[in-house]
Amino acid sequence: MKTLEVYKTGRAAIPSGGIGATINIVGVQPLDRGPGFTGSIGAKASYDNSTDDCIDCGSKVTPEFSGIASWANEAGNFGVTLFGSYQKRNFSFVSQANNYWNMPTLTDFLDPSKGFVRATTVINNRPSDPNVLVAVPDDYRHHFSEASRERINGQAVIQFRPADSLTLTVDGLYAQLQESERRSSQSNWFSRPFDEVTFDDASNGIATTQFLHETLPGVKDEGFENAYRAQKNKLYDIGANAKWDVADNFSITLDGHLGKAESLPDNPNGQTSTTVAFNGNIVSAHSLSWDDDGFPTQTLTINDCFHNTTPTGTPFTTGNCNGVFDAADLSAAVQRQFASAQTQDIKEARIDAGWDLGAGSRFDFGADYRTTDTRQTQYNTRQVLGDWNNALAPDVNALAPGLVEQYCLTCLFSHNNAKADTAGLVAWRAQDTTALYNALYNHYIGITNDGVNHANNIDSNADNRVKEDIWAVYGQVTWKGELGGRKASLVAGARFESTKVHSTSLQQVPLAVVWQADNDFNVANSADRQAVTGEGSYNNLLPSFDFQVEPIDNVIARFSYSKTISRAPYGNLFASTSAGALNNPSPLGGTATGFQNDPNLKPLDSDNFDVSLEWYPHKDVYLSVGFFDKRVHNFIGNTVVQRNLFGLRDPTSGPNATAARGIVNALGGDITNVNLFTSAAVLQKYNGNTAQATTELSANYDAGTRTFTSNYIANIIATLDVQPTAGDPLLNFAVNTPINNKDAEIYGVEIAGQYFLGDTGLGIAASYTLVRGNIGFDITADPTANQFALVGLSDTANATLIYEKYGISARLAYNWRGKFLSDVNRGAAHNPVFNDPYGQLDISMSYDVTKNISVTFEGINLLEEGVRTYSRDYINTWYEAEGSARYLLGARFRF
Fold first, then answer.
1. 556 Cβ partners below 8 Å, 6+ apart?
2. Residue partners of 451: CB distance under 8 A and separation at least 6
3. Rounded to an integer, what distance in angstroms lies between the CA atom of residue 496 and that of residue 429?
4. What pLDDT was estimated at residue 1?
5. Which residues, 6 or more positions from 885, have their beta carbon under 8 angstroms from its beta carbon?
6. Are residues 23 and 152 in contact, defined by beta-carbon separation less than 8 angstroms?
7. Which DSSP string do the residues of 412-476 spell out, in sequence order?
8. Phi, psi (rounded to 5 degrees) for 26
């Protein structure tokens, strides 16, 4: 690129880019560089210090190359520019995540009928307010990822000037990004009820269950899902431009381009992601605690000699009875494949005309037409192996020898203390998850006599298209002159844009929500798909006004007003509706989620007011202060609506489930998801005959543990599913829908400056932006209520130390962004997503060895800052990934 033009306020001649700045990238053109052959070529060696933790992520030092060559003939009327670059980066990172934060009231949490606790549960630091919201995690997950990125970029520009008044330009752009990630997880779901709970101080109005402990009547699994993710992204674009100076003071420019972007699956199985969930079904007790920074640690008690039987009656043990967590204890559970693809075609043509009025004043006008065609497809499959309850004997080591290896995941955290005990130090990974998937698939796909259905099920088969047609016209006047003897200028104009949206989706029709195990549900879909369409349209008039005056020497005052728009993301414009499964029986607080998009979403539009004062005492020194106020309308947010989808019914709340609950109560059992499922499945097996079901359930009930025997539960889960019936109530889904929400106001101040210390070459540049909004998120609000809040707002700051002298150019830069809200209404509890503050320290240095040769050094993220998001309470972590530092050493030759 040659120049980045940043428009901090709207301009009629520039397509609207939203409520922030619009950036116009100006490329290198050969006729601007003069006759002859010029260019440069450079190379760098890149080292990411996270590769030290890699088990096998490739070379620790990777190359980067870039070069540009430009030639123009002596006549200066024909030229060619070529640019190319290549980058390769290998790295790793550890992270932790949580699937969902439940938000019951304290009263509901302490009610044994809700399934969280039993009457004998030990409660520590109990909050005094019965209505305080309690944050309860579904699970915890530690991840280790080895990743690679490879970028290839190329650009060519040809220019021809057959006459001084006419310049013809043709350019082409190609970009490719290949990304891959091999991720292994170590996780535990809670079975409930807990036998000990400790709350934090609840000082912010949210009582987080900071410590949780459960003891199993038998054993449960610790999960080790492995994934091989890979995607190849490509961009092609070719454009043509003709600029004709019709007269000395009037020019016309015709411009058009055709482009295509695609993102396609790229792992060895031809998928976006291949995942294999295998487990160690040997956990007899489990605890989880969250530290004050929201990092989870666990303790495990294991029993690898628990006796079980397969659904067909074959006895086995869940491990090898040696008291050590080793490969012989691993059981294959469920494996899945996900193929996500997205393509977009764009065609654009525009005409711009300019009339030079002299002395820097001019009138510009023009028109633009753009059409985009976006298509997104999703095809997901699922194969049950031994199922989530590990109904079959341990098999991973026998069926895939050498493909799974032991390592210590928690040991890889550098900035958090995982504090794992002996069993927690053991984790398992497959370097090539696709090879593991294929080995297990080939073994199980033909087996039909072990009591488990191993067929490959289609979980999703979606095809969404959005076509967007936009045409625009504009007129803009630029005036330069004097007011009261002082220099002044004005840019004013208006832009009119008209948009039409047509959306078509092919979606599967859900037939039933099937209760498969204690907290496992599946949506059964039809084999056929139905077409759904939607339309949308809107028109926008976008005026703009930018005035500046120099009231005193070296001081510039500016005032600007503009109206801008920001269009809805394409994913929000799909015509499809989707239904998800429950995460627990609904009587125990379980929720089913769904998504419904809206092709008729209107764009966000904003009235932007900006005032600034700038002082330039010297050529390399300045100070500026700016105030901004943005009145935002049609803010695009999301809402969660409780309603039924597709006529689906709730198998956990109907007559069968109610009768099953009665059997559990009569036996004296705990009201837990596993007890309710087991009873409901057996009752359905006997077609609702309570007496027969009670006889079988009583024979397998353990009064000491207040539940059924583990062998019996495992066999029921493996062989029986609870199907919904016409007598079951309609299932209420928490349907997440994008909407044009309330109006809002964003305001703030920006201070920026630069100062060089005489001729020393030493300088500093810094800025601070304070941003405020008039609507925020209330963390103590009712979890059933939708909230509207402004997302993405945060204070930002940066400071850069500069040295420029004796052929040395050096920068030490620190960039910081404060806490901000990035999402609202996540899940049925309408939870928020907050992002932690982030600060990054970088260094860059170059030295001109000669006028043609320079050497460079760069250090990126020297403090190894990571990222973290959380929910209502600071310790309610959604996701956290540790960061790493990257160092680059390079050289460049200019000719």
1. 548, 549, 550, 613, 614, 616
2. 310, 311, 312, 391, 715, 718, 719
3. 56
4. 78
5. 48, 49, 859, 860, 861, 862, 863, 864
6. no
7. G-SSS-----TGGG-EEE-S-HHHHHHHHHHHHTT--SSSS---EEEEEEEEEEEEEEEEEEEEE
8. -100, 120
What pLDDT does 722 receive? Answer: 96
Nearest to 678 by CA among 709, 655, 654: 709
- Residue position matching structure tokens 């039809």: 526
Q: What is the identity of the amino acid at 140?
A: Y
- Alpha-carbon distance 372 to 553, whole Å? 48
User: Region 466-470: what's the mean pLDDT?
Assistant: 97
Helix, strand or coil, per DSSP, at residue 714: helix
In degrees, rounded to 5, the angle at the alpha carbon of residue 265 between the alpha carbons of residues 373 and 375 is: 15
**Could you tell me the pLDDT band of residue 292, with boundaries at 50, 70 and 90?**
very high
229 token code pair: 């993710």
Closest CA to 428 of 410, 405, 401: 405
Instruction: Tell me how crowded residue 120 is: count the other CB atoms within 10 A of its CB.
Output: 10
CA dihedral 691, 692, 698, 700 (to 10 degrees): -170
Q: Which of 13, 44, 63, 17 is nearest to 846 (CA)?
A: 44
Mean pLDDT of the chain: 94
Please report, for residues 59, 497, 540, 636, 681, the alpha-carbon distance to residue 466 in angstroms, rounded to integers and kept in the order given: 41, 19, 20, 18, 43
Round to whole Å and give the CA distance between 644 and 653: 14
Q: Residues with Cβ < 8 Å from 402, sequence gap 6 or more?
A: none
Instruction: Report phi then psi at 600, rounded to 5.
Output: -100, 20
Q: Which of 269, 283, 305 is closest to 221 using CA atoms?
A: 283
Distant-in-sequence contacts of 759-764, Cβ < 8 A, 24+ apart: 760/805, 761/803, 761/804, 761/805, 761/806, 761/808, 762/801, 762/802, 762/803, 763/620, 763/801, 763/802, 763/803, 763/804, 764/799, 764/800, 764/801, 764/802
How confident is residue 455, by pLDDT bands cut at 50, 70 and 90?
very high
Task: Return the exposure string of 596-621: e unless at least 16 CB atoms fall within 10 Å of the residue's CB, then b.
Answer: bbbbebbbbbbbbebebebebeeeee
User: Which of 145-154, 637-646, 653-662 is the least confident region?
Assistant: 637-646
From 333, 332, 457, select the one nearest 400 (Cα to Cα).
332
